[in-house]
């Protein structure tokens, strides 16, 4: 768990980025309707949660910075027994005052009133442009001297790039659960008939271990379905001679895991499957070995493309000079995506890849990213040897950048051919 001390530290770090004469406002996520009068399980806005640790809706976090100090205020849903009968207990104002290290706590209904009270002399307004534009617009009217608006999410996103020890511990816990889920899938795939049955096995393990949500909709793609990168139908039959691409990870206490393994339905790879799988696995391991502070993500991307292109020429999938093929981007037909992305509170952590000057941010100790090379060959691609058609392979690990190199946080989720088959 993240301590209140750490949330206080995050708020102080954020406050230092604000100029005097400014306020910053973060709103909780809105509940999302599923159909008619039913809702999806509530999931807090990541930036709001990063600064507050508060999981309820109808909430806000307000920073008010003057020449003398910066104060923070939490707004929460007041306790209403009649409503709580239907939707569950609320923390309420008084309990929130005891729990959270902020200057004061108010009911959410008082937000507009307090903005008016704090707004005298405020010239700059910081909020999340992407999430809160529509809800913030009427509140701006309370700030009579307002001159400029700024995207507060950009400040938080840069802070979220570097994970604390507590955050890394939660990611490791998510990965421990995800490991059990993927190993269960490897053990039972040949006994099942449909992709959704395998999805159910994965998500059973998530929930059984206290990860009440997947970090994203699980991809369980057999045979040619694996060549649709964001395939989530998961309703095809499991074909005994084919591979299954499983991209699935749980979310534990708001922190994500993101793992892809590609396994044979029958438990045994064919010769052609081994050839393609070995190529992707070699690239996965080679790119992970490159990770260290100071290296650029673009360097990892370029090397992965070179290695995959070279391997595809060797297997007869591509034909010609490797340099010329890379220049023509011929390999992108079979490897269309990036080598990886930031991961943390969101599976695709909304952290920047470039600094304020537009320059690529090099890897630094404390960053967590995925490494996920892949090859995707459609069943109708007659330019490729028949034995490789209808195969899609991706192998994805979650990597922590350390002071001297890296730590593969998912190292014990098996990926060697012999390990998978055993």
Textual characterization of the structure:
A 6-stranded mixed beta sheet has the order 6-5-4-1-7-8. The chain is an alpha+beta fold and 422 residues long. The chain is built from 13 helices and 19 strands. α8 packs across α9 (195-208) and α10 runs antiparallel to α11. The model has no long low-confidence stretch (mean pLDDT 96). β7, α6 (129-136) and β8 form a beta-alpha-beta unit. It folds into 2 domains: 4-159, 3-Layer(aba) Sandwich (Creatine Amidinohydrolase, Chain A, domain 1); 165-421, Alpha-Beta Complex (Creatine Amidinohydrolase).
What topology does this entry show?
Elements: H1 4-16, E1 22-27, E2 33-35, E3 38-39, H2 46-52, E4 60-65, E5 70-76, H3 81-87, H4 92-99, E6 104-107, H5 111-118, E7 124-127, H6 129-136, E8 148-151, H7 152-160, H8 165-188, H9 195-208, E9 213-214, E10 219-222, E11 243-248, E12 250-252, E13 255-256, E14 259-264, H10 271-290, H11 297-315, H12 322-327, E15 368-371, E16 374-377, E17 391-394, E18 397-401, E19 406-408, H13 417-421
Parallel strand pairs: 1-7, 5-6, 7-8
Antiparallel strand pairs: 1-4, 2-3, 4-5, 9-12, 10-11, 11-14, 12-13, 15-18, 16-17, 18-19
Helix pairs in contact: 8-9, 10-11
Describe what is shown at a glance.
The chain has 422 residues and is an alpha+beta fold.
């Amino acid at each position: 768990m993240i301590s209140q001390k750490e949330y206080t530290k995050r708020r102080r770090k954020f406050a230092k980025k604000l100029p005097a004469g400014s306020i910053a406002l973060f709103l909780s996520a809105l509940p999302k309707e599923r159909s008619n009068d039913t809702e999806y399980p509530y999931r807090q806005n990541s930036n709001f949660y990063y600064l507050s640790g508060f999981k309820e809706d109808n909430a806000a976090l307000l920073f008010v910075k003057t020449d003398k100090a910066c104060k923070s205020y939490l707004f929460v849903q007041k306790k209403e027994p009649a409503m709580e009968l239907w939707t569950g207990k609320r923390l309420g104002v008084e309990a929130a005052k005891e729990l959270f290290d902020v200057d004061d706590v108010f009911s959410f209904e008082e937000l507009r009133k307090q903005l008016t009270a704090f707004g005298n002399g405020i010239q700059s307004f910081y909020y999340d442009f992407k999430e809160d534009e529509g809800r913030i617009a009427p509140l701006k009217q309370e700030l009579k001297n307002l001159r400029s608006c700024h995207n507060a999410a950009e400040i938080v996103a840069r802070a979220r790039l570097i994970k604390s020890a507590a955050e890394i511990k939660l990611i490791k816990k998510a990965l421990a659960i995800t490991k059990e889920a993927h190993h269960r899938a490897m053990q039972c795939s040949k006994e099942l008939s449909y992709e959704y049955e395998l999805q159910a096995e994965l998500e059973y393990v998530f929930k059984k271990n206290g990860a009440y949500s997947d970090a994203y909709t699980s991809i369980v793609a057999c045979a040619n379905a694996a060549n649709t990168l964001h395939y989530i139908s998961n309703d095809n039959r499991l074909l005994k001679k084919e591979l299954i691409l499983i991209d699935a990870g749980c979310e534990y206490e708001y922190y994500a895991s993101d793992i892809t393994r590609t396994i044979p339905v029958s438990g045994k790879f064919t010769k052609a499957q081994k050839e393609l799988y070995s190529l992707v696995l070699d690239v996965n391991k080679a790119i992970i070995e490159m990770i260290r502070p100071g290296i650029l993500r673009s360097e990892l991307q370029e090397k992965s493309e070179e290695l995959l292109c070279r391997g595809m020429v060797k297997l007869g999938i591509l034909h010609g000079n490797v340099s010329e093929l890379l220049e023509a981007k011929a390999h992108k037909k079979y490897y269309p995506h990036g080598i990886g992305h930031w991961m943390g509170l969101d599976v695709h952590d909304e952290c920047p890849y470039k600094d304020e000057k537009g320059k690529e941010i090099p890897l630094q100790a404390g960053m967590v990213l995925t490494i996920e090379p892949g090859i995707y060959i459609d069943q109708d691609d007659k330019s490729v040897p028949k034995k490789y058609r209808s195969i899609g392979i991706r192998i994805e690990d979650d990597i922590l950048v350390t002071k001297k190199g890296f730590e593969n946080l998912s190292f014990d989720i098996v990926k060697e051919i012999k390990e998978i088959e055993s």
